[in-house]
């Protein structure tokens, strides 16, 4: 059985910079309430970051690279490529920040406020944090979407199955080619 791979697809034109995706991410991964997150400005714990680039605002997150530089450089194999995603095995992370330095998207951070898997309290040591596609949160809550995609009311973030998305994009490109060919074939008056 083939494991389906998913991706977060961002439409920068739809992003309003409200940062509800960041708040939802922190809420899904911690025991903090939305009110506590906003009051304590705890969005630094988010695995998705809204960046302002010139006049645009763009949510940035892990791209779950197939040949992931973060996993290749990790000296303790704390970051591993599994079917569908790059996972952080926090119990193996020593907080060296090599993954942070090589991520081409700036999507990995190191923080100490993250509970180690299996623990109930935050750890005092710093460990790698990156998008995990809300795998535990989705399983626990019976959700199909990631917390950030669910929170985005503007449709800027979509959680899609990769093969379906690729087929949709190929069809859109083919339609674009047909329309261009039809326009070029029109006689000029």
Automatic annotation (TrEMBL):
Pfam families: Fer4_11. InterPro entries: 4Fe4S_Fe-S-bd (IPR017896), 4Fe4S_Fe_S_CS (IPR017900), ET_IronSulfur_Cluster-Binding (IPR050954). Signal peptide: none annotated. Residues 6-35, 84-113 form the 4Fe-4S ferredoxin-type domain. The keyword Aminoacyl-tRNA synthetase does not apply. Keywords: 4Fe-4S, Electron transport, Iron, Iron-sulfur, Metal-binding, Repeat, Transport. SUPFAM superfamilies: 4Fe-4S ferredoxins (SSF54862). It comes from the Bacteria. One of its GO terms (molecular function) is metal ion binding. This is Carbon-monoxide dehydrogenase iron sulfur subunit.
